[in-house]
Amino acid sequence: MSIDYDKIFDDALxxxxxxxxxxxxxxxxxxxxxxxxxxxxxxxxxxxxxxxxCSNDYLGMGQNPNVVEAFINAVNLxxxxxxxxxxxxGTSNYHVELENELSRFHKKDSSLIFTSGYIxxxxxxxxxxxxxxxxxxxxxxxxxxxMIEGIKKGNSNKKIWKHNDINHLEYLLxxxxxxxxxxxxxxxxxxxxxxxxxxxxxxxxxxxxxxxxYLDEVHGVGLYGLFxxxxxxxxxxxxxxxxxxxxxAKGFGLMGGYITAKSNIIDVIRSYxxxxxxxxxxxxxxxxxxxxxxxxxxxNNNLRESLYERSQKLKQMMNNKNLPIIENKSHIxxxxxxxxxxxxxxxxxxxxxxxxxxxxxxYPTVPKGLERLRFTPTPLHDDEKMEHLVNSLDKIWMSLxxxxxx
Length: 406
Ligand SMILES: *Cc1c(COP(=O)(O)O)cnc(C)c1O
Fold this sequence. Notes:
The protein has 14 helices and 14 strands. By secondary structure, it is of the alpha/beta class. It folds into two domains: 5-62 and 301-400, Aspartate Aminotransferase, domain 1, CATH 3.90.1150; 64-298, Type I PLP-dependent aspartate aminotransferase-like (Major domain) (Aspartate Aminotransferase, domain 2, 3-Layer(aba) Sandwich), CATH 3.40.640. Pyridoxal-5'-phosphate binds at residues 116-118, 121, 144, 146, 187, 191, 216, 218-219, 247, 249, 257.
């Protein structure tokens, strides 16, 4: 019997196209100093200026002059690559300094950097799950794919609690062997709906049942708290979180992930996680830029105030036009479309007719039927850009006869 490999691959792609969720990457080149403007290179190779409305570089730090300068200076001093894994020739002063900076930033004993936030979650959770005897991980049902993969790989017991439902979490904790080890894993700001976790309650319940807390603050670091330490810092419970995970890619505008915790936890993951041990460390220049970015973001609370003001303003403008946004208290502005093909169509019209770039968000990133456009205003999206966006959406909503908010 012969296997028709081509047919298998082609069918898989045909299915995605049929469901309207075949992924098309838009070619968007950012221009230093002009954030959030960028150059869109369309499929015919024609270039045009667009405004980016869906970047996770929430504060524009990827183009901050201090950050760019730190990056270039480090390249000039030590070259482009790290030269090895952390264990074999790939630890530099920049890496050590960055980890120290992160520990100070979060008021924790110790920190560990990874090549991405995804890898940080996967490594930390899988290693903890494997390491702790007879362990159960309690995972919020809306947790990010990187946590889910880490939990799967850790191969411990797993219990999924209904999103943000502390009663369900307590029910599951209560019905788990008292003498087994437990980790409660959740996020502070859920990036697709923009809702917050009830962090204080989760901490209290976790303590009551002697569980460790693992908090993904990827969409919180740099953005919440007086010094940008995250939502847990804003709520004054930073020190009650056992393991905090963050990224250097969103609020800090770069690349890389980290965890921060008590020294012995960090040391175990440093010593046992294959995804940390057997991979080349971040370029030193990236670590240098990350240090500059963290310091800048920590010392400029006005960035956070401005992010909040801009996102509130955009929500209000969309509400005034009865555009069906999902209400939340965060900086994220999700606009519901509820259909994958329409979602892509609106995104294409915005890009081609209005020079607005927002990527459609379809299954499996969000559940089927909850497809949406997800806007991320930054301090650099001014009134003029917001008016252009909202007026363009209003016209599209009219011409396609889309449903409005009640
Ligand atoms: C983006 C994201 C990650 C992964 O971070 P990267 O640094 O981009 O790999 C982890 N958790 C959540 C909730 C995220 O949204």
